[in-house]
Design goal:
This protein has helices at residues 13-17, 26-32, 80-102, and strands spanning 3-7, 35-40, 43-51, 60-66. The protein is an alpha+beta fold and 106 residues long.
Length: 106
């Protein structure tokens, strides 16, 4: 599975809304250029948004959400701890890729 990251486009709002677990105005973040998406096979599977001047005047990651369908790990109900760890791992990979590719924009 190949994951690509790019700045979010207004046309991504509908795809993000399908799995977004947080309150907020993604369209505003997209228009401000502070929202990025992760794509798997051309499908939006995660997003991250940030505030350009957050804590101590530095950029601050405010939202990071990964689509449940794209998560890997245990699928059995008893495997909740493994699923949570898998989600954290995916979020960390997405965060590292986002920072590496788009650090000049942040």
């Amino acid at each position: 599975m190949t994951i690509e990251t790019r700045p979010a486009w207004p046309s991504d709002v509908e795809a993000i809304a399908r799995f977004d677990e947080f309150n907020g105005d993604r369209l505003r973040e997209i228009e401000a250029g502070t929202c990025f998406v992760a794509l798997s096979d051309g499908r939006v599977v995660a997003y991250a948004s940030y505030e350009p001047r957050g804590l101590l005047g530095q950029p601050l990651l405010t939202y990071l959400c990964v689509c449940a369908d794209s998560k890997t790990g245990p699928r059995d109900p008893a495997g909740q701890a493994g699923a949570i760890q898998s989600r954290r791992s995916q979020a960390a990979v997405f965060d590292r890729r986002l920072v590496r590719r788009h650090a000049a924009h942040i």
